[in-house]
Each structure stands twice: as C-alpha cells, then as structure tokens.
Amino acid sequence: MAKILVFTETHNEHVKTVTLEILAKLSGHSLEVAAIGEISATGVQELAKYGAAKIHKIKGAGLEKYSPEGYANALKDFISKQSYDYVFAGATSLGKDLFPRVAGSFDAGMASEVTNFVMDGDKFAGTRPLFAGKCYAKVEIQGPKPHFITVRPNALGLGTATAGAGAVADVAGNAGAIRAIVKEVVKSASSKVDLTEANIIVSGGRAMKNADNFKILNELADVIGATVGASRAAVDSGYAPHAMQVGQTGKTVSPSLYIACGISGAIQHLAGMRTSKCIVAINTDPDAPIFTKADYGIVGDLFQIVPLLTQEFKALLGK
Ligand SMILES: Cc1cc2nc3c(=O)[nH]c(=O)nc-3n(C[C@H](O)[C@H](O)[C@H](O)COP(=O)(O)OP(=O)(O)OC[C@H]3O[C@@H](n4cnc5c(N)ncnc54)[C@H](O)[C@@H]3O)c2cc1C
What's the N-to-C CA distance of the chain in angstroms? Predict the structure, then answer.
C-alpha cells in the first residue's frame, strides 16, 4: 500500500472534481490531501467520502493567493517533512504550472497529464498522450521518491471509493522568497463551468460566421448544462475569446459529450478533444474529417440543426 498525497486546488474553497477522480482511482492506498488555503465543510466531506484519511490545509503569509514560487516553496516544505511515495494533482492550468516546479525542486521524476494509470502494488504505471494525442505512451517513474503525477480532468471519471476518516489539520505554510508576484487574476465573464472540467461542451467553428451567432450555441448549452467552446479559426476570427479555444494551442478537454458545430476536425482541434467520451458532429460537408472521429454525425446546416436540438432538449427535459 503506497502512501499518497493528492494536492487539491480549491476554487472559492470548493474542491475540484479531478481531485475526487484521483482519490477514487487510488482507493485502497493510504490517502492524504493537501490544499493551500481554506476548504469548505462540503469540500472536506467530499474528500473524506472519496477516501482522504487526512486533509492538510496549508496556510501562511504570502499564500493568500496563487503564486508559482510561494505555492511551490510551501508545498516542498510540507512534502519534505513527510514520507510520501507519490504526489498527485489535477493537470489544471494551476497544476501544470506548479507541479513541474515542485518535482524539479526535489529533483524527482514526474508524469504529466496522464489520462489513466494503474497501481501494481506500490508501483505506478500511467498512460499519457504524445504528439497531440496521435499516440499514447506508457510511463513509469524512476529514481528517488516521492514521484509526481498530474492527471487530466475528466479522464478517469468518478469511480467508487472507500470513505476515509477525513481528519483536518492546519499546517503552517512557508512561502519563502517570492520573486514573481501575481498582481491580479482576471476572471472570465462566464459563470459557466470551466471548459477543462465541463461534462458537456458545445463548440463552434469558423462556420459560426460571427460572434453574435454564438448565441444559438449558448441557448443550447443553457438547456443541456453545457459549456461553450470554439475552434481556433473561430477564435482567430474574433468570434470567441481565446479562453474558449479547444485544441493543441487551446484547452484540452475530456467531457462526456462534445458537440462540434461547423468544425472541420483539423488534427490540432482533435488534439484537444479526441478523448471526449461521445462526439457529435454537425457539418454540411459529409467528407469533413470530424466525421471520422464522431460517434454520431449530422450532415446539415448548424443554423437549422442547433435550434432544433435546443427545442427538442427543452421538450425532453421539460424546460
Ligand atoms: C500550430 C497550430 C496550432 C493550432 N491549434 C489549434 C487549436 O488549438 N484549436 C483549433 O481548433 N485549431 C488549431 N489550429 C488550426 C487548425 O489547423 C484549423 O485551421 C482549425 O481547427 C479550423 O477551424 P474550423 O474547423 O472552425 O474551420 P474550418 O476548417 O474552416 O472548418 C469549418 C467547417 O464548417 C463547415 N460548415 C460551413 N458552414 C456550415 C454550416 N452552416 N453548418 C455546419 N457546418 C458548416 C465546413 O464544412 C467546415 O468543415 C492550429 C493550427 C496550427 C498550425
């Protein structure tokens, strides 16, 4: 049984779902969770439900808001006083920024953005996409422990877990010397779930023609509880902000359902969404490459199909 720490990023004191996915997958091991800052009572309950025996809340001067150096110093300080075999985190924007820095400070091995893994006894073996998802590599980590692993959100799914004690402890954090200070975090105007964590995504491509037309995607998204994304062509044309871009130079997503509207399916777009569980494509061109990856394809004009889908879902869901 390996001793494992899962670092949880919190948003307004709420725990990110990817933390629960990781905990559930690691069921049966000795599991602890660390967060920098506060966690809500509901968050603590969820962590315990998914197997956390101990929950460490690291707090201290300089840790009030995220800074790569402050968080890395505090986490390094905390981890070096323990004896973990593995330290996991979600491959969120924060996780991807923070974890290589922490792993580097230990001179330890790291597996980034794994989409699945197994624990053979105490030994970790993961799978991670390479070359924009064209192939998958099996990864094992060598060298002294702890080993560091980030897991792509939504990739594992919320498995069943054995509940843990969920004992909460406050830890004095040491932010150390912070040379690069984050002055401000500009929040996106959208109150929707972040793309990387969304369970359903409706994305629009160049065929949307302008920013205003995205309202038909927003209407559908509102009815089915989705977040709206975009292709790079739509973003470069000014129809949508870069925060909405899915793909190699945008966000990597793994929702349960991805509805691509007027998106051709270029390899760079597929790189960001090919691990979606179910892909639906709406395109006027029956030969569009997206149809080779789609589970369901609708050959037709999105300006007719999307409002029809919205209408049907409204009726089905009684909205
Ligand atoms: C280094 C690099 C990085 C890149 N990174 C990304 C990335 O992160 N994300 C990304 O998306 N792209 C990325 N690209 C760009 C990528 O190669 C494509 O150019 C882009 O994905 C095309 O976007 P699109 O599918 O919206 O547009 P198009 O390829 O122009 O496709 C539009 C589609 O809409 C269909 N269509 C037209 N009218 C309608 C209608 N009324 N109803 C339904 N369908 C209709 C057409 O048949 C067509 O298939 C990158 C490229 C490079 C070189």
Answer: 48
